[in-house]
From TrEMBL:
Its cofactor is FMN; Mg(2+). GO terms for molecular function: FMN binding; metal ion binding; phosphopantothenate--cysteine ligase activity; phosphopantothenoylcysteine decarboxylase activity. Its EC number is 4.1.1.36, 6.3.2.5. GO terms for cellular component: phosphopantothenoylcysteine decarboxylase complex. GO terms for biological process: coenzyme A biosynthetic process; pantothenate catabolic process. It catalyses: N-[(R)-4-phosphopantothenoyl]-L-cysteine + H(+) = (R)-4'-phosphopantetheine + CO2; (R)-4'-phosphopantothenate + L-cysteine + CTP = N-[(R)-4-phosphopantothenoyl]-L-cysteine + CMP + diphosphate + H(+). Keywords: Decarboxylase, Flavoprotein, FMN, Ligase, Lyase, Magnesium, Metal-binding, Multifunctional enzyme. Binds 1 FMN per subunit. This is Coenzyme A biosynthesis bifunctional protein CoaBC. It comes from Secundilactobacillus malefermentans. Residues 6-218 form the DNA/pantothenate metabolism flavoprotein C-terminal domain.
Length: 222
């Protein structure tokens, strides 16, 4: 581990899941607990970084020393990232971002009607935060994404690495309850352009966060 490997670096980290409102009381969400992103924020602080943590709703206490920005929707997360990316040296997107949102928000609670046997929601795509940022980054800025996959982990992850112009991608299999969403442990494969994939054993999210921070500090020194 490189001691203070991120000293004087400004690191922007996203954590938790985003929520898309259907009506005033309902939303589309996902199973992200924020544990992975918060662990990365803690590791980056330990390595000397100035951390801004953009977080969806979680039950976690943010690490001491992080500047915390709370968001609910993908749009709010996108705005917070856009506002803070320019002055950051690295962006790490561990958040589970909604890919779809209701096409229309209904501003009163949707009622069941006697004649209804169901409800059809029409969804539209949300903005892809990391892809937008990938197109704006300047020399020296490092963008790290995650890939949550349930099948064809490496193929799908490699496609994301290229499409979203990331400097590093951390792929995890989210079909196993013991790793991925909400667990204390994870198992990831680090993908860097032009390098062989590197799979970790199952480890705590804190240990994975330390490995990730170490890899990022090496990228800065290249
Ligand atoms: O929070 P935990 O319970 O600890 O769980 C951790 C985790 C499983 C959420 C985390 O390890 C993880 O995999 N995060 C990424 C989840 C995700 O949205 O993956 P994706 O493969 O759908 O997206 C790929 C990348 O694009 C991600 O970096 C994501 O943040 C980003 N993205 C996705 C959609 C979108 N509209 N905008 C984005 O920027």
């Amino acid at each position: 581990v490189v001691q203070q490997g991120l000293k004087n670096k400004k690191v922007l980290i996203t954590a938790g899941g985003t929520r898309e409102l259907i009506d005033p009381v309902r939303f589309i969400g996902n199973k992200s607990s924020g544990k992975m992103g918060y662990a990365i924020a803690q590791s980056a602080i330990n390595a000397g970084a100035q951390v801004t943590l953009v977080t969806g709703k979680t039950n976690l206490q943010p690490p001491l020393g992080a500047k915390v920005i709370h968001v609910i929707s993908t749009k709010e997360m996108a705005d917070a990232v856009a506002e803070n990316f320019e002055q950051s040296d690295a962006l790490i997107m561990a958040a589970a971002v909604a890919d779809f949102m209701p096409e229309n928000y209904v501003d009163q609670k949707i009622k069941k009607q006697a004649e209804d046997d169901g409800l059809t929601l029409k969804l539209k795509k949300t903005v892809d935060i990391i892809k937008t940022i990938g197109g704006q980054k300047h020399a020296g800025q490092i963008v790290v994404g995650f890939a949550a996959e349930t099948q064809n982990l490496l193929n799908n992850a490699n496609k994301k690495l290229n499409d979203k112009r990331m400097d590093m991608l951390v792929a995890n299999n989210v079909s196993n309850d013991k790793i991925g969403f909400n667990s204390d442990d994870n198992q990831v494969t680090f993908l860097l352009p032009g390098q062989e994939p590197e799979q970790t054993p199952i480890m705590t999210k804190h240990a994975i966060a330390n490995m990730l921070v170490d890899k990022i500090s090496h990228l800065f020194n290249e």
